[in-house]
Design brief:
Blueprint lengths: L4 E2 L18 H16 L4 E3 L9 E5 L11 H8 L2 E13 L3 E5 L9 E5 L2 E7 L5 E6 L1 H14 L10 H15 L9 E2 L8
Parallel strand pairs: 1-9
Antiparallel strand pairs: 2-3, 3-4, 4-7, 5-6, 7-8
This protein binds nickel (II) ion.
Length: about 200
């Protein structure tokens, strides 16, 4: 089932999400619905707060990046298989010199801005079978995970921009929260004033 994606301005996106105590049939169903929702919106990652659930869960499928001919063969190989469910994750370490990349977010349609992040991460998490996993990653897979991880910490990529950049996009963000944006997937807008 495709779920509505929560738009910028909803308080759930600013909340630090809670750990998931145990596996359940509902959780497995939710994960399936999140994948359907993400693919329908052509996203490469989706975090539970974005569908209105303040729990520590996000999904990633960064395989579309594997088509990028500018990347090295080994990174493309990693990205081709970069599909995973992250439950109760912890980023243990981030290292290296920050690099910038133009990020977008399904909750903030039509805005892309350069965001600086460290290239290397070590992450521990439970997969969808609740088996403990650990990965060391870099490149685009790491970046998508960092973006999604921020979501469960209540942080949006727009929070990482300079105050100057934020001022420039302020009006656009306000419009998004009111539903004044063209988007071709289901969304829920926090400040929608009236229905047409
Ligand atoms: Ni996002």
């Amino acid at each position: 089932m495709i779920l509505p994606i929560v738009a910028y301005g909803d308080p759930v996106l600013k909340r630090k999400a809670k750990d998931i105590p145990e596996d359940s049939a509902e959780l497995q169903q939710l994960i399936d619905n999140m994948f359907e929702t993400m693919y329908n919106a052509s996203g490469v990652g989706l975090a539970a707060p974005q569908i209105g659930k303040s729990i520590r869960l996000f999904i990633v499928d960064a395989s579309p990046f594997a088509e990028d001919d500018d990347l090295e063969e080994n990174e493309r190989e990693t990205l081709a298989h970069a599909k995973e469910v992250f439950i109760n994750p912890t980023i243990l370490e981030e290292s290296g010199d920050e690099w910038d990349f133009s990020e977008g977010c399904l909750s903030i349609p039509d805005i892309r801005e350069d965001v600086f992040r460290k290239p290397n991460i070590t992450i521990e998490y439970l997969n969808r079978n609740f088996e403990p996993q650990s990965m060391e990653l870099d490149g685009f897979y790491a970046r998508v995970i960092q973006h999604e991880y921020d979501h469960i910490e209540g942080i949006l990529f727009t929070d990482k921009l300079s105050s100057f950049k934020r001022r420039i996009i302020k009006g656009k963000l306000s419009n998004i929260s009111k539903g004044k944006v063209k988007v071709d997937y289901r969304m829920r807008f926090p400040n929608l004033t009236k229905k047409r």
